Amino acid sequence: MTCGTRNGYDKHRRDGEEACQPCKDAKAKWSRVQRALRGRYCQVPPLLLAQLYLSAPIALQLKFELAVGESVAAALVQRLDQAETPQ
Ligand SMILES: [Zn+2]
Questions:
Q1: What is the whole-number distance in angstroms between the Cα of residue 32 and the centre of ligand 1?
Q2: In the prediction, which pLDDT does 33 show?
Q3: Residue 41's pLDDT is what?
Q4: How much distance in Å is there from the Cα of 33 to the middle of ligand 1?
Q5: What is the CB neighbour count within 10 angstroms for residue 73?
Q6: SS (H, E, C) 16-60
Q7: pTM of the model
Q8: Contacts for 46-52: CB closer than 8 Å, 24+ residues apart
Q9: Looking at residue 50, what is its pLDDT?
Q10: Residue stretches of the chain with pLDDT short of 50
Q11: Who surrounds ion ligand 1 at CB < 5 A?
């Protein structure tokens, strides 16, 4: 068995023991990916999302605005502007 993998985590559980930390970490990472792939959305930090939005081609920006709403897209950009403005 290899610790630090999801299989390692499952093996711990099958053996009726608590998983070690590397296996818990691997399982948590795997679960995050599964939730992102299964669900409608995945978690992205707002400022990173704003940067991705602004650097996307226009056609993709329009698609994004349709998906989240123009007001959300505008709020993300405003938040990014505030974060980038020197105080
Ligand atoms: Zn382990």
A1: 19
A2: 87
A3: 76
A4: 20
A5: 20
A6: CCCCCHHHHHHHHHHHHHHHHHHCCCCCCCHHHHHHHHHHCCHHH
A7: 0.65
A8: 46/76, 46/79, 47/79, 47/80, 47/83, 49/76, 50/76, 50/77, 50/79, 50/80, 51/80
A9: 96
A10: none
A11: 3, 8, 20, 23
